[in-house]
Amino acid sequence: MKFTTKLSGNRISIFNYSDKDADESGEFKIEWYFYTEVRDWGVKNIGVYATNIKGTVELNYLDVSESKKIEINSDNDDWDLQTETNLKWGDDINPQELEVDFETKTLTLLF
Description:
The chain is mainly beta. The chain contains no helices and eight strands. The relative contact order is 0.26. The chain has strands at 2-8, 12-15, 22-39, 42-61, 66-73, 80-84, 97-101, 106-110. 0% of the residues lie in helices and 65% in strands. It has one domain (2-110).
């Protein structure tokens, strides 16, 4: 089953963009799938994975009154999309946090 979730605020962590001090924020739309592996005897496994992440990172520099917006799209850019899951019985199954690392160009979605 395909889902779309929006993440923003303190659920976005931004790493390694600039040497300048800045307030960093982001807003992203995440497309992801939930799947089940079913056998004759019941459900063998459940899982999730992200297929696309699009959004904006905004940097507001503290020493000057300047801001910068950066558009990110995991389909069109050289971003590596990773999904980390640690699902346990009773957990909500939806994206919890997104880590954006500009040095390694990695988007890590945590479920």
